[in-house]
Amino acid sequence: MLAVHFGAGNIGRGFIGALLAQSRYEVCFIDINDALVEALNHKQSYRLVKAGETREESEIDHVWAINSRTDREKVVATIARADLVTTAVGANVLPLIADLIAEGLQKRISETEKPLNVIACENMIAASSLLRENVYKHVTEQEKGVFAQRFGFPDAAVDCIVPNQTHDDPLTVAVEPYHEWIVDGTKVKGELPPVRGMKCVDDLTPYLERKLYTVNTGHAITAYLGYACGYPTIKAAIDDPFIREIVQKALGETGSLLIDKYGFAPEEHAAYITKIIDRFQNPYISDDVTRVARSPIRKLGANDRLVGPARQLLARGQKPENLALGIAAALAYDYEGDNEAVQLQQTIARTGIDGALCEYAGLSREDELVQLVLEQGRRLKEVLQKKSPESLR
Ligand SMILES: NC(=O)c1ccc[n+]([C@@H]2O[C@H](COP(=O)([O-])OP(=O)(O)OC[C@H]3O[C@@H](n4cnc5c(N)ncnc54)[C@H](O)[C@@H]3O)[C@@H](O)[C@H]2O)c1
Ligand SMILES: O=P(O)(O)OC[C@@H](O)[C@@H](O)[C@H](O)[C@H](O)CO
């Protein structure tokens, strides 16, 4: 079996590609990073390290790669004969790879009637659906009919922390031992050849929202508060009692939303939160706050991990003060190495915090959430000033 996976980065090599290879797929990575592609083709394997107490190591083999910038035709031909296509390139990149996937699927139609599934493993609600929408922009009306019958774009929830890292061998990747990969089984076309660690469900939304609004909400707030307090890593940030308390309370807020919407058992959800905070404290992983905080404009999106649950809670008559404090911290994120942070700060300088929330989170100036974020922004400033006036950015 052949899997084509877009994005040979942290989650591509460390999680999706590794599980596929361990499930006896030959994995063809598609990337635009020359050095990575060359190294994968040279070695055709890489080392996977489980960053836990026992530090298990294994060799992932039967892998190779294509550079989609220089070898488009090869990518198209490989998609045409694949048994599965997956992505982990970043949500913002999905529209940029859609034309290439469309071309591969067009070629496939002329060669075989076999169905194929394309699963976007990105941190957002309905990433595969977004990819499908973008792929359909590149095909004719007539082709759309065949595409709809033959090609599935099941949405998915993926969870495994893979930090940025450097090793002597740049292909080596260390990942946390925990992982979860849940796929919307109702959108699968034909048979999905089994993948170790992948679970298909009939109703993905509760799992997807539980993951995004717990793991990623907590992670983002830890990162933005950690950055504001001058901590370099997620572990250092979550070890700070002030940050841990805010994160715990914010996850209490999203928890009440998730329990209310989907009927999760409160004790089980509390255990889920505890487990996640433990994962942030993993002493065998060093995860930079700037990785987790990356792309603050995307993270401030209307349905994303911060504003998404906060809006829903307000609509239910609840006041998510700790989420609002997390949003205020995200708006303060001014790391110069992050293009979105730079753009965010320019927008704030031009239009104010409320203007930025209107532009990026789809809110209006009168929205209760905007007022709550402004209020919590003042609280955050006071806390930080008391904590360490000299570290206040
Ligand atoms: N790292 C994690 O802990 C984690 C966990 C779950 C989900 N995710 C999600 O997985 C996705 C990837 O995250 P990551 O941490 O692996 O990022 P990463 O930066 O390590 O990897 C992304 C890879 O995509 C490649 N890429 C960029 N543009 C491309 C293009 N046009 N065509 C082909 N390849 C392209 C990059 O060169 C890079 O190798 C994101 O959506 C992220 O939210 C990450
Ligand atoms: O990948 P992002 O930028 O959406 O979010 C950063 C982290 O929160 C994320 O990568 C987590 O490590 C991951 O989602 C854990 O499963």
From TrEMBL:
Keywords: NAD, Oxidoreductase. Its EC number is 1.1.1.17. NAD(+) binds at residues 3-14. GO terms for molecular function: mannitol-1-phosphate 5-dehydrogenase activity. The keyword Membrane does not apply. Residues 2-194 form the Mannitol dehydrogenase N-terminal domain. InterPro entries: 6-PGluconate_DH-like_C_sf, 6PGD_dom2, Mannitol_1_phos_5_DH, Mannitol_DH, Mannitol_DH_C, Mannitol_DH_N, NAD(P)-bd_dom_sf. The keyword Secreted does not apply. Residues 203-347 form the Mannitol dehydrogenase C-terminal domain. Pfam families: Mannitol_dh, Mannitol_dh_C. It comes from the Bacteria. It catalyses: D-mannitol 1-phosphate + NAD(+) = beta-D-fructose 6-phosphate + NADH + H(+). Belongs to the mannitol dehydrogenase family. This is Mannitol-1-phosphate 5-dehydrogenase. It comes from Polycladomyces zharkentensis.
